[in-house]
Amino acid sequence: MSSQRHEIRVPEKILEQAIDWTLKIRFNTPDEKTRQAFKHWLELDIRNKEAWQQIQSSQQGFDILPGSDIVDIFETVEKKHPSRKLTRRNAIKLGLIGGMFLFSAGWGIKYNIFGGRQFLTAGTPVGGRRTLRLSEGSVVELNTNTTVSTEFTFRRRQIRLLRGEVLITTGKDTQSPFYRPFFVQTPFGPLEALGTKFCVRIMPESARVCVLEDVVRIMASGYNLSVRKGETFEFDVQKIRQIADSSPMAADWVDGIIVAKRMPLSTLLDELSRYKPEKLSWDSRVTVLKVSGIYQVHNPDKALEILSQTLPIKLVSQTDNSIYISSSLQ
Question: CATH for 118-243, among 3.40.50.12710, 3.10.25.10, 2.60.120.1440, 3.40.50.12780?
Answer without folding.
Answer: 2.60.120.1440
